[in-house]
Design a protein that fits this description.
Length: 161
């Protein structure tokens, strides 16, 4: 992973190189109101915050034909690995039901230029990818008492069950 300041003097160095730049973090709004999770101790936790991450993947090479070839290898590799299961995700923060999807995006050329301009680096042909859904767990827990008695109003009179 690289930061914009890392690209200012980056020339690819070796014969071939790939940089991955996180340029966008967004919320997947249609999944934001999920159900609360019940934990083993009976407490509840908010649903994970569903995020979509935008990455710009750039092939670096000494000439354009090598860069284009490398771009093709990147596209094929990420297409073949488009769905990552929890077994493929690394790190301790993943739950067994977690997964991530990698999707090639059609980013408008103006947005490409904006990313490169902010890094103060001449424009390079890049691939834009969205990685979704990355769930960020809440640390807040709720201890709600169990419902043991219900009163319902039927025909204007309260009935207890």
């Amino acid at each position: 992973m690289v930061a914009p300041r890392d690209l200012e003097n980056f020339d690819g160095g070796a014969e071939l190189a790939i940089t991955v730049f996180l340029y966008r973090v967004g919320i997947v709004s249609e999944m934001r109101n999920g159900t609360f999770r019940t934990l083993p101790d009976g407490s509840q936790r908010r649903p994970p915050l569903p995020l979509e991450l935008g990455f710009m993947v750039t092939p670096w090479a000494k000439d354009a034909s090598q860069a284009n070839y490398l771009a093709g290898v990147i596209v094929r590799t990420l297409y073949d690995a488009a769905n990552l299961s929890s077994a493929q995700l690394r790190g301790a923060g993943w739950n067994p039901q977690d997964s991530a999807q990698i999707v090639l995006e059609s980013l408008p050329i103006a947005d490409h230029f904006r990313v490169w301009d902010s890094a103060r680096v001449p424009y390079r042909t890049s691939l834009a990818y969205a990685v979704r859904v990355i769930g960020i767990d809440s640390t807040e827990r709720f201890h709600a008492p169990r419902v043991v008695d219900v009163t319902a109003a039927i025909g204007g009179r309260g009935q207890q069950s």
